[in-house]
Amino acid sequence: MVRRRFVELLSSLPWEELEKNREASFYSMKNILLHMIDNEDWIVGYIIPRQADKYVRKKWSEYKSMSDVVAHLNEVESRTRNFLVGLDANQLGTEVTLKLQSGAEFVLTVEECLFQSFTEQLYHMGELIALLWQTNTEPPPMQWFYNNPRRKHPHIS
Hints:
- By secondary structure, the protein is mostly helical.
- It has a single domain (2-147), classed as dinb family like domain (Four Helix Bundle (Hemerythrin (Met), subunit A)).
- 54% of the residues lie in helices and 6% in strands.
- The protein contains six helices and two strands, in the order ααααββαα.
- A hairpin with a 5-residue loop joins β1 (95-99) and β2.
- α3 runs parallel beside α4 and α3 (29-47) runs antiparallel to α5.
- The longest helix is centred in the last third of the chain and has 25 residues, at 110-134.
- The model has no long low-confidence stretch (mean pLDDT 93).
């Protein structure tokens, strides 16, 4: 839900602003968002099912509009929801190996992989917040109490 609010806001900005090199972790707001989406896809769709060798990421330069980015997000979120629906508590302790491009390897449980993906999202959301502030754009609230789907907050649409 929070990431969707950021996507909605980013979709309202000119594409040139999203692609502009801001010397951030992945240079542009578009690339940071794509990294967030791809990280979830990689961890949930490939690391956890032990198919990391099959992961192929589309080049970020191939995304030509926010509708391209949103289509990718929709696909990844759909696969993630399907994974989570089938997940049971016994699987959370299953160990998998997460190998970075640097060659560093980490043996993590499925639960830790999900936590890693979650913290990656938060890290880069904070980065997007700072970049939005630099463009005098107010980011959407990311606090849980504003985004809790069980309790609609009157000040958030």
